[in-house]
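From the thread on structure requests for the teaching lab: each student submitted one protein with a one-line request. Submission from student K.M.:

"Model Peroxidase from Nicotiana tabacum, tokens only."
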Amino acid sequence: MGKYELLMVILSMDIIVSGGRFDGGGYGFVDGLRMEYYMMSCPFAEGIVKNTVNRHLQADPTLAAALVRMHFHDCFVQGCDASVLIDSTKGGNAAEKDSPANLSLRGYEIIDEAKEELENQCPGVVSCADILAMAARDAVFFAGGPVYDIPKGRKDGRRSRIEDTINLPSPTLNSSELIRIFAQHGFSAQDMVALSGAHTLGVARCSSFKHRLSNFDSTHDVDPTLDAQFAKTLSKTCGGGDKSEQAFDTTKNDFDNDYFNALQRKSGVLFSDQTLYNSPRTRGIVNGYAFNQAMFFLDFQQAMVKMGLLDVKEGSSGEVRSNCRIIN
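Reply posted by the TA:
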């Protein structure tokens, strides 16, 4: 796909969403969100977020993966409402960020910094949910991924409970289970595989894949879908303990299609990664993305826009927090 064709796709998505017709590929109608939502009320909002993200990622490129992951963990629990940013209260509410699934999230300081500057420029206007969605998008582009616009106008939620994180997909799920869970949020199997491609960035901790290396099941000590040499690499990584990290692919700070090439080599780090290639239902999608990076980029950006519309809070159903860590 040439640059002109890709630009036309982006422009057509802009027109559809700005006109109020975008429904997230059949997920649901979101009337209040618009591409130009802050054009009059805070015209420099996008620039402030992008500059803050770029400044931090230039110092630490691994934060690109962190921001994309944080956005996903936010949207899959109570929708894209910045509930993942809320701090627990002493002797009171245990918030999402203290769930075992979220303890390794990073990059909160980027959102805080962007929010502080936005509050100085446009008090009470730009939501934390929009800041997180924009930051994830800007992180993808910084790392070499596709450029795309997203509708804005999300409000921040008033609930953040640790028990709600049970809805996050586990790294032990197989392809059929992943398809079912993502379908509950309105995603197709193709959307699910495209979003899984976010693992082209970042690392996984040993605790999330060590079950593949010993006592895997009743007939196999090591997961038979693992390349034998790569299994040794993972075992060596885990020699450093549960918090030891293994990159998902060979270019952990670059947004590309190498993740899908790794799956073809039976070198997926998580069981939930490798299952995408092992399953006949999703193998063709993996092969397509491994062969055609432009197709992956296009499907990924569309799936990200769709994810950003999950259970969006509008009007009185939400608020604009003055501090992203605290409900007003």
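TA comment: The domain at 42-166 is CATH 1.10.520.10 (Peroxidase; domain 1). The longest strand covers residues 203-205.
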